[in-house]
Amino acid sequence: MSSDKTIARVRGMNDILPEHAPVWRFLEERTTALLDAYGYQQIRLPVIERTELFKRSIGEATDIVEKEMYTFEDRNGDSLTLRPEGTASCVRAGLGNNLLYNQKRRLWYGGPMFRREKPQAGRYRQFYQIGAEAFGFDGPDIDAELIALSANLWRALGLDGLVLELNTLGTPASRALYRARLVEYFTSHRDALDEDSVRLLSLNPLRILDTKNPAMADLVAGAPQLGDYLDPESAEHFDGVRRLLDATGIEYTLNPRLVRGLDYYTRTVFEWKSGALGAQNAVCSGGRYDGLVSQLGGKATPAVGWAMGLERLVELIGSSGVRIPSGAPHAYLVMVGDEAASAGFALAEELRQTVKDLRLTAHCGGGSFKAQLKKADASGAAVAIILGDDEVAAKTAGLKPLREKTPQTQVPWTDLADRLATLVTAGRDG
Ligand code: HAM
User: Fold this and answer.
1) Residue 313 Cα: closest atom of ligand 1
2) 314-333 pLDDT, tens digit each
3) DSSP readout, 155-198?
4) Which pLDDT tens digit goes with each residue over 179-210?
5) Which residue's CA is the nearest one to ligand 1's atom 2?
6) How far does the centroid of ligand 1 lie from the alpha carbon of residue 129, in Å?
7) Which residue of 285, 288, 290, 313 sits with most ligand 1 atoms within 8 Å of its CB, as the best mutation to test the pocket?
8) Which residues does residue 134 pair with via DSSP β-bridges, in sequence order?
9) Does the global pTM surpass 0.85?
10) Which ligand 1 atom sits closest to the C-alpha of 88?
11) DSSP letter (8 states) at residue 40
């Protein structure tokens, strides 16, 4: 059956159009260059995992696992899930491939993640992350390194105005003590709790501190503070992180309410936020998760990492005024006449092979000189290379600047590669 109705995209899952691709490329290239510079190795992970992986790591009582996962039954009855984040997969892959046992590893990954949240600006159901994870390091230096790497990245991307919020959650034992106090406190104010908080009281009381309900702001402000229950080792670790950040000149604010929405964190947690993004303002978040590797069946291994949301960073870069390479061709080849069409096809292939990094679009489909020149202009190319049958006979080509009011010149084919190479090194695209 045929239908002339087009098929809509799935809500919350976006197409990234060619006009936006250069900003994505810029972001990805700068980020991966910096990850290389700090010695992080790429690991490429599958998009689908066993559902149990996320239940056991992110936690059963989190929003992600409770209501946001895309979970389905495979044809053989296995329960599978589109990954909502990368940390659990990274640990799973590290264990499965014996990358973590008594080893120190710095890893990074990137790609789409899936959460069935309510879509709004900056919040999507398919979104992209780049994440970095370090395994086997227990000192505060690696926490600080990961934070410094992100701070450095904002510089490399030309972004300012990002604010770092920092907190420590302590060890599971100190958190359990705090949790008990928190339950006491909220139970004694049960009447003031909203429905969601009543539910969280037994499931995950720390998440009540995360509430967005303004009616509960006072209650939350008066709640016991995690810092008061912190074990001495975690306090010392946190001091160590802060000392290194201070020594590096990385500013931060302490936010004792920062608890994060995933259960695996211990000790350091942090979030980079932007005032220019509205409600969905976290661009990079993470922390330490010393218990996760053993929770997923490995030997106890300290770990820490972060992930950043690429859509939100793309949005910030777009409004920052940073000049992004357009990706437009350096040159557009116009060919008029049968001789020119076939000689031009071969010439274009040769130029692409000889001139490093040359972006050359060859006109396809024929048409008048005027129509082809219009296409050349619309492509954003810096110059048009013009080939007619006369030029082919003389083995020359016209070189017409499209962005400047300088006259067209005739260039022998033997000089074309050098002339185009000059354009490439000058970084001249449209
Ligand atoms: P997360 O805070 O859930 O942490 O996500 C990290 C970042 O992904 C957020 O700061 C945000 O920029 C972006 N993000 C999250 N959800 C969405 C969404 N629905 N739409 C657009 N962007 C979103 C994690 O995922 C942890 N795995 C981070 C980590 C790595 N912790 C330790 N290592």
Assistant:
1) 12
2) 999 988 888 898 889 999 99
3) HHTT---EEEEEEE---HHHHHHHHHHHHHHHHHTGGG--HHHH
4) 999 999 999 999 999 999 999 998 889 889 88
5) 285
6) 7
7) 285
8) 106, 304
9) yes
10) 27
11) P
